[in-house]
């Protein structure tokens, strides 16, 4: 991210003025003040009490020290807050990324978010989270910078979709909530990110020359799609949230009061702390008033590294003394941060960091950002945190593998098959598995995308390793061009490995600036040609795809010799044996697509194309597609995709039968009224003494390090302003009176009645084939006809994976729909409403979004099989 800023600085045209391009008419970023105090839900009240007691005894400089990072590269972790050691509060270590501890060693490189999404397995989602939690804790990380659910996956070319769980809010929600629960069960604070609308990489950041892209999102779409997974993460008690780089409705997410104060902290009842993405903060006072609680990494966004400048730290101390930020706003931020720390039990025996995100050396500069001249010391203890996590990592990689085509039982392979293996993706990067920083290249087996969401591989179990250890009879042609010497013979099975990659914007890979702006939806490295060339010479071709998201397969998918196709997604370090277990039939594949695979890029609405070619003005990205993202769009427009969302074959077959639907909580048009907010800590409104921020005598300051102290003169001058008659000159629309809260709120995630089960559904899943396998029961809701809200034809609301069922074996799977699942967000009443309480909702069950043959109706409370799928 730093690099991006420096690059834009170097291309700064002298004297160029920033032209404002107005957001389209109607999109507004309304004021929303004050920031709600945290601590009002019962689950957090003990932690808030403990935190408030500590905060009451802190000096001003200690408080502001805890709300910001000490600067980029100013400690072992990617983010390091200031401390208050006088009262035993250490610096907090914040570290990327969603799939493993980034930039270190002896860690597990887990399968990416998109891969766990493809398992549709809630138990695995949680167990992967627990393993991640153990690793972050083992390295001494206080705050895990994941999971990511923004981007949602609106743009198929978006660079970071693979960090999240799939292009559907409910799939994202389960991925997020279960990851949060798993990670936090180990005492690590999880971070739900990026709030919100960060759907493309290009133009995401504010710089000297250009404002970050504005995602213009209407209120209903925000609630029903983009905020949905955040709400579920909050409901799981997530301890922190990260705001996105971009703007929403023209206002930067880091200081968008409506988004942070009104929606996240009030309506969704978020009790933890809100941090900025790295260098996303663009102002001091406005971001504080808008509800930001922590500035990361502490630098100003325009010239990091160059100076000790910060929007907060000493400036925050100043703005408290001069009365520009009310004292209770700072107190609330610090209390939220410490409450999260207590909530996870980090006050007891939490290890300090024992790795360096900046260096692989054992010793080196303690503060690389202060070089030359940083004090030196031990920076890496090389602690092995892998435990037995390779087991769950491999299970995820294996159970995500999605079989899309399998003609005539080509798969599983027979043990004696003669294999010809093509494509560089089958074997490790010859330059070294970690030779590209942050995996910023696509060379060798693709186990993850690039950027801050990456981790180093401790090893890479490649597909070739897998073939070797199986004793397969194979020849490998380590090239992405078809070789002339492969000597095809009729019984050979050719296995072709192909990829599509993407990542974060600060690295460009093969012309792709994070987003797949150059490759588009095509395979990389002329993969289409390789598949076609192989298919021209071999009659049994299996294609294995490692991909960040949807690709175009039209050039070869229907070729008669392309017999089988598998998406292995992004398997992390466990790419080899996980695939072998599926290829050779130790297990049946059980992954399902976490997005739609189109036939053409034109299948998508124009509005989800990447915004490009914007110079100096704020790029505008207006979400006119509304609710119609991914399969919701294809269904609405009647476009048949190549493979539908939720699709995935097995080596066996399943039936879904004997479904039941049981009303649990009777519906009403609007939910019962919310519980009142509980008591929150009370804070003094008196501006503290200027002396609380004075530099201590003889303080040994680190060069460029961000401190919260002010020179005596500066502090006194600010205090003089604060003590003037003009108290609190806050912005227009500002109020410092805490509110009772909006109707749609009331608990973590929103009004608790929203999550009441409306109907329990059960279905018998039977393995009707000859081999063992796991099925995924997917539940989609169809709203009743005749309602006054336009709704997508079907929407995923629940899913459950069966255990491995032997041939002939059955399992009764339990699913449910909540009040929220049957509601729409009414922008007028600002509440979730059930559009017709006595309406006949269709609750459709099947194993793909386009294969739903079992319908339960809410009106008659009966279920009928053998139906025509609604899409
Ligand atoms: C964005 O503008 C739309 C249209 O006026 C409005 O409904 C929505 O609430 C706004 N969202 C935010 C986060 O300000
Ligand atoms: C702020 O944190 C830094 C880093 O731990 C520390 O050196 C400094 O003394 C702290 N300031 C206060 C006021 O405690
Ligand atoms: C108070 O200090 C902050 C931080 O330096 C500054 O942005 C703001 O303008 C100051 N307010 C007044 C009234 O001087
Ligand atoms: C499947 O196998 C049958 C019998 O061997 C053969 O007739 C048929 O052409 C095969 N189908 C395809 C698509 O290869
Ligand atoms: C591998 O397969 C080829 C072609 O079927 C065969 O000639 C050769 O003997 C096999 N090698 C082994 C070690 O089985
Ligand atoms: C604030 O101002 C009042 C009167 O203007 C003065 O009496 C008082 O000493 C001042 N307090 C501080 C802390 O400067
Ligand atoms: C609500 O659903 C019931 C039952 O299907 C139907 O009779 C009624 O007309 C619907 N009301 C509206 C306003 O659509
Ligand atoms: C398990 C282990 O070795 N933990 C170490 C991590 O590093 C800190 C120093 O920062 C040590 O105190 C821990 O013992």
UniProtKB/TrEMBL annotation:
The keyword Magnesium does not apply. Residues 775-849 form the Fibronectin type III-like domain. It comes from the Eukaryota. Keywords: Carbohydrate metabolism, Cellulose degradation, Glycoprotein, Glycosidase, Hydrolase, Polysaccharide degradation, Signal. InterPro entries: Cellulose_deg_GH3, Fn3-like, GH, Glyco_hydro_3_AS, Glyco_hydro_3_C, Glyco_hydro_3_C_sf, Glyco_hydro_3_N, Glyco_hydro_3_N_sf. It catalyses: Hydrolysis of terminal, non-reducing beta-D-glucosyl residues with release of beta-D-glucose. Gene3D superfamilies: Glycoside hydrolase family 3 C-terminal domain, Glycoside hydrolase, family 3, N-terminal domain, Immunoglobulins. Pfam families: Fn3-like (PF14310), Glyco_hydro_3 (PF00933), Glyco_hydro_3_C (PF01915). Residues 1-15 form the signal peptide. Pathway: Glycan metabolism; cellulose degradation. Its EC number is 3.2.1.21. One of its GO terms (biological process) is cellulose catabolic process. One of its GO terms (molecular function) is beta-glucosidase activity. It is an enzyme of class 3 (hydrolase). Belongs to the glycosyl hydrolase 3 family. This is beta-glucosidase.
């Amino acid at each position: 991210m730093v690099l991006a800023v420096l690059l834009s600085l170097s291309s700064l045209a002298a004297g160029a003025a920033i032209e404002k391009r107005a957001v389209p008419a109607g999109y507004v970023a309304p004021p929303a003040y004050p920031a709600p105090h945290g601590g009002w839900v019962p689950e957090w009240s003990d932690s808030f009490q403990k935190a408030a007691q500590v905060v009451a005894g802190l000096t001003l400089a200690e408080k502001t020290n805890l709300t910001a990072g000490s600067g980029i590269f100013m400690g072992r972790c990617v983010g390091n807050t200031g401390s208050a050691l006088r009262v035993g509060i250490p610096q907090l270590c914040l570290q990327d990324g969603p799939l493993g501890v980034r930039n270190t060693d002896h860690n597990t490189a887990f399968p990416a978010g998109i891969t766990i999404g493809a398992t549709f397995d809630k138990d695995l989602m949680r167990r992967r989270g627990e393993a991640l939690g153990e690793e972050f804790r083992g390295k001494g990380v206080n705050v895990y910078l994941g999971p990511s659910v923004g981007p949602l996956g609106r743009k198929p070319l978006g660079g970071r979709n693979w960090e999240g769980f799939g292009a559907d809010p409910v799939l994202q929600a389960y991925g997020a909530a279960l990851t949060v629960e798993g990670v936090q069960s180990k005492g690590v604070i999880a971070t739900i990110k990026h709030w919100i609308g960060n759907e493309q990489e290009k133009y995401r950041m504010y710089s000297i020359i250009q404002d970050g892209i504005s995602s213009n999102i209407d209120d209903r779409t925000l609630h029903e799609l983009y905020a949905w997974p955040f709400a579920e993460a909050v409901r799981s008690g997530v301890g922190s949230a990260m705001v996105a780089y971009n703007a929403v409705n023209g206002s930067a997410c880091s200081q968008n009061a409506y988004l942070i104060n009104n929606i996240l902290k009030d309506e969704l009842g978020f009790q933890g702390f809100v941090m900025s993405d790295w260098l996303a903060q663009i102002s001091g006072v406005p971001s504080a008033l808008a509800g930001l609680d922590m500035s990361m990494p502490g630098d100003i966004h325009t010239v990091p590294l160059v100076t000790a400048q910060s929007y907060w730290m000493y400036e925050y101390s100043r703005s408290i003394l001069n009365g520009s930020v009310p004292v209770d706003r700072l107190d609330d931020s610090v209390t939220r941060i410490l409450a999260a720390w207590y909530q996870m039990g980090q006050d007891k025996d939490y290890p300090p960091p024992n790795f360096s995100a900046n260096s692989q050396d054992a010793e080196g500069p303690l503060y690389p950002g202060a070089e030359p001249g940083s004090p030196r010391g031990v920076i890496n203890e090389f602690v092995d945190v892998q435990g037995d996590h390779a087991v769950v990592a491999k299970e995820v990689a294996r159970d995500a593998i999605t079989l899309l085509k399998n003609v005539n039982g080509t798969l599983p392979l027979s043990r004696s098959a003669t294999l010809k293996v093509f494509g560089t993706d089958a074997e490790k990067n010859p330059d070294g598995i970690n030779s590209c920083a942050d995996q910023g290249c696509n060379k060798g087996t693709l186990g993850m995308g690039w950027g801050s969401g990456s981790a180093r591989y401790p090893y890479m179990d490649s597909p070739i390793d897998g073939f070797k250890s199986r004793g397969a009879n194979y020849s490998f042609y380590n090239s992405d061009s078809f070789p002339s010497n492969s000597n095809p013979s009729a019984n050979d099975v050719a296995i072709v490995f192909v990829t599509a990659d993407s990542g974060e914007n600060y690295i460009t890979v093969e012309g792709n600036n994070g987003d797949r702006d150059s490759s588009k939806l095509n395979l990389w490295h002329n993969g289409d040609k390789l598949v076609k060339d192989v298919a021209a010479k071999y009659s049994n071709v299996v294609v294995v795809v490692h991909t960040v998201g949807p690709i175009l397969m039209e050039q070869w998918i229907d070729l008669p010799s392309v017999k089988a196709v598998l998406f292995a997604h992004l398997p992390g370090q466990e790419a080899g044996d996980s695939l072998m277990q599926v290829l050779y039939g130790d297990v049946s594949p059980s992954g399902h697509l976490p997005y739609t695979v189109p036939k053409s890029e034109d299948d998508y609405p124009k509005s989800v194309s990447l915004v490009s070619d914007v110079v100096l003005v704020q790029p505008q990205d207006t979400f006119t597609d509304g609710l119609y993202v991914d399969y919701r769009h294809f269904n609405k427009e009647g476009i048949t995709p190549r493979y539908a969302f939720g699709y995935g074959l097995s080596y066996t077959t399943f039936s879904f039968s004997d479904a039941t639907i049981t009303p649990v909580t009777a519906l009403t048009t609007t939910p019962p009224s919310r519980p009142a907010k509980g008591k929150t800590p009370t804070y003094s409104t008196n501006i503290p003494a200027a002396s609380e921020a004075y530099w201590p005598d003889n303080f040994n300051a680190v060069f460029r390090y961000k401190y919260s102290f002010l020179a005596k003169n500066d502090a006194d001058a600010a205090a003089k302003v604060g003590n003037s008659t003009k108290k609190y000159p806050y912005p227009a629309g500002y109020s410092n009176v805490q509110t009772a809260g909006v109707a749609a709120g009331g608990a973590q995630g929103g009004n608790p009645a929203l999550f009441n089960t409306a109907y329990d559904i059960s279905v018998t899943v039977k393995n009707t084939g000859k081999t063992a396998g796991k099925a995924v029961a997917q539940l989609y809701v169809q709203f009743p006809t005749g309602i006054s809200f336009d709704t997508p034809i079907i929407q995923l609301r629940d899913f459950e994976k069966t255990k491995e069922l032997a041939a002939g074996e059955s399992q009764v799977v339990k699913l449910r729909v909540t009040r929220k699942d049957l509601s729409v967000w009414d922008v007028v009443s600002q509440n979730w409403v059930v559009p017709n309480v006595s309406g006949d909702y269709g609750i459709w069950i099947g194993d793909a979004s386009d294969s739903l043959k079992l319908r339960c109706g809410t009106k008659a409370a009966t279920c009928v099989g053998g139906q025509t799928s609604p899409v």
